[in-house]
């Protein structure tokens, strides 16, 4: 693998169960004199699917390290650190945005959701772990640029939902969110109602969405069209503050996300258009 991968096993937390955290350092961060290099940081969910085919679902990684190293080598983005947060058996509960379910309508929908949500949502605790425990550790241990302008979050499916939720709940921490194959149907699209009231003000944040048209992704287009309308109404400028891409024929899997991950990386980490 290009770059350097370090694992922090069973990273402890007061908010969520311990889990592994992988940190990928770009080649530029390990060269002589790199102690003076400070890098943006991209936090990614479902960390075991990012780097090692032996661990990744279906044996296919996102190829995100290779894509990011290539973009940095071409000068499209700065050298960037990736923090891969492993998921846990309670993944659905941690990744489902919590505040939308706190309304009366949300409580009704939660009661109708599957057994994977038994015990209620845990997204707020998961984000407290990310923002108040993991991020300070990463900023202490690695050559980061810790400010909002250089801190990003990204994931796919339910990981897309929690990335969007992280941006909305912590707009002073994250500058952008990458949401690939966002699983809008969770809670019958209730996150869209929350989004209408909680989008950060445009001009200082970037949001990337995409979806395919096959397998589970075939469900997403109507929801994504509603999300796009909300962003336009909030003053987000397409191509500058936000980008939505449709990929005809693309399925809901790591191979599909690997094939297009360079697009959100360039949009989020590159210079604003």
Summarize the structure.
The protein has 273 residues and is an alpha/beta fold. The chain has nine helices and eight strands. The protein has a single domain, classed as Alpha/Beta hydrolase fold, catalytic domain (Rossmann fold, 3-Layer(aba) Sandwich).
User: Which residues sit in consecutive blocks of at least 5 with pLDDT less than 50?
Assistant: none
Q: Give the helix/strand class.
A: alpha/beta
Mean pLDDT across every amino acid position: 94
Fourth-tier CATH superfamily name? Alpha/Beta hydrolase fold, catalytic domain
Classify the beta-strand content into a percent band: 15-25%
In whole angstroms, the N-to-C terminal distance is 31 Å
How are the strands of the largest sheet arranged?
A: 1-2-4-3-5-6-7-8
**Domain tally:** 1
Explained architecture:
There is one protein chain. The chain is globular and about 55 Å long. The mean pLDDT is 94. The chain has 9 helices and 8 strands. Helix 7 links the parallel strand 7 (206-212) and strand 8 (242-247). It has helices spanning 64-73, 91-95, 104-112, 123-141, 158-169, 190-198, 221-233, 254-260, 262-269, and strands spanning 4-11, 19-25, 41-44, 81-85, 151-156, 176-180, 206-212, 242-247. 34% of the residues lie in helices and 18% in strands. The chain has one domain (4-269): Rossmann fold, CATH 3.40.50.1820. It has an 8-stranded mixed sheet, sandwiched between helices. The protein is α/β, with parallel strands linked by helices.
